[in-house]
Amino acid sequence: MASIEQRGDSWRVVWRYNGDKQYTTWPAKSYAEQAKDLAEAHRHKIDADKVYREILEEADTVSDSTAMTFREWCQKWLPAKTRITERVRADYRAQLINHIYPPLGDAKVGLGDTPIDQITGLDIGAWVNAQRASGAHNKTITRRYSLLHSALEAAVRQEVIRSNPCGQTDFVRDQVAEDDVDQHEPVYLTHEEFALLRAGFDAKWWPFLDFLVGTSARWSEATAVAVEHVVAPTAKSDPKIRLWRAWKRGAPGSPRYLGVTKGRSRRDLRVTRNLYDAVMPLAAGQPKGTLLFRTASGTELDYSNFYKQVWRRGLRAAMQCPNHPAPDRGQPLEGARGRCRDYGGEKKDGTPCGARVKPGTTRCLPHSGPNPNAVAACDCPGVLRRWCTPHDLRHTSAAWLLSAGVPLLVVSRRLGHEQASTTSEIYGGLLPDADDAVLDVLGRAMQTEKD
User: Fold this and answer.
1) How far is it, in rounded angstroms, from Cα 212 to Cα 390?
2) How confident is the model at residue 64 (pLDDT cuts 50, 70, 90)?
3) Can you give the pTM of this predicted structure?
4) Are the C-beta atoms of 402 and 430 separated by less than 8 Å?
């Protein structure tokens, strides 16, 4: 890593190239910082003479840039990317057009129309702050920033620019310095809460819910498991589930397809005998290639349909108290007539309902009876109090494992994270006991030295 040292009235930049120290000396700190950025952009594979030449030649050029704009660069870079699907390419293009190219905040010119060699760290920082001011959540900003960073980093590799201006910002993914808390917090259910959630669903969905929490699988992986991926136990081994593939989004307008899983390409997960016994009836007698979890017609489960038609219904049932049902939305009223909206009736989208009321009541037929979205306001036990999503079952599974003392690396492999640092970043807050253990070990070690 290159470093800057102040020596009297000058600044010296030092780095190593091919085992030898390289030095450049500058009359101003701004030149030194530029030299440091240049050395690091080349991953230190540049000698001092070339750094001098590039920076001094740049200083002699006129300020008007003739370089391509950032938009023009992306129009070359994005079609050339080889390790993404057409759907991802289309998503990247939409993010660039809608959120990165246009002017934001007080900017008169957007990043898209700025010459790529004129984009500075200040421009990137102003863009990040404008994203926040527009109401974008931290994770959303991180995704857009990552795309911006990748495009500029590719420009460095192709020697279109000398350094990536994103490296000149203090941006930290998913975080704001004041609180370092993202708006979307995962939900970790306790064992008791999961049991309450499960009880709210029709029994035919219990194996699927057990599978999600028992394997830590992503939705795209769980719904791609075929019957042959359920491996029976032997005298020497536990049953296993093979997470070898996942559903991928194709190009816009094209169907989803089966591809490799995210992170680690394949995982063979040992599972409990109870889980194996729960899913085996779904696989029994089915030909190879049949999806383990499927619709009545044998096709894959669609997340949106499942969430709207199954998940929300089961979740609401778990959040309602049988002893304190929600009140009827319609009230008897002698002589009531007209429209449901006349008495406060609304559709699902919140707009006034124009259907005619039932005679003698204040609601139409569809809006009569208890509100299906109502949740219990009582303090009775046996009622789920937290809203969650199917993906939170993956978070819940990880939380159960970590709280039981399973090593982080083992949990990371089970989750399919490519790096353990990803697991630590997401679930590090669930390991307070780890800090206690560190203090205990250090305390015992230091006490031993004193004795």
Assistant:
1) 8
2) low
3) 0.64
4) yes
Dist CA 28 CA 149 (whole Å): 28
Q: How many CB atoms are closer than 10 A to CB 404? A: 8
Stated as kind and residue range, the H or E segment containing 141 is helix 138-157
DSSP designation for 203:
G
Contacts of 92 (CB under 8 A, 6+ apart): 78, 84, 147
Q: Residue with structure tokens 């989208």?
A: 349
Which amino acid belongs to residue 130? A
- Bridging pattern class, strands 10-17 and 3-7: antiparallel
Percentage of the chain lying above the pLDDT 70 cut = 88
Residue closest to 354 by CA, chosen among 368, 370, 338: 338
* Cβ atoms of residues 32 and 4 within 8 Å: yes
- Cβ–Cβ < 8 Å for 201, 314: yes
Question: Residue 171 in contact with residue 146, Cβ under 8 Å?
Answer: no
CA distance 73 to 101: 12
Q: 52-62: buried (b, 16+ CB within 10 Å) or exposed (e) per residue? A: eebbeeeeeee
Mean pLDDT in residue range 358-386: 83
Please tell me the predicted confidence (pLDDT) of residue 42.
82
Query: Which two tokens mark 289?
Result: 């290639």
Residue 262 near residue 218 (C-beta atoms within 8 A): yes
Q: In one letter, which amino acid is 313?
A: R
Q: Is the pLDDT of residue 422 over 60?
A: yes
Nearest to 41 by CA among 151, 165, 173: 165
* 440 has a pLDDT exceeding 70: no
Closest CA relative to residue 153, chosen from 42, 64, 75, 68 = 42
Q: Supply 49's token pair.
A: 């003479």
The CA distance from 358 to 306, in Å, is 32
Residues 6+ away with beta carbon under 8 Å from 132: 138, 141, 176
One-letter identity of residue 14: V
Hey, what are 280's tokens? 């085996």
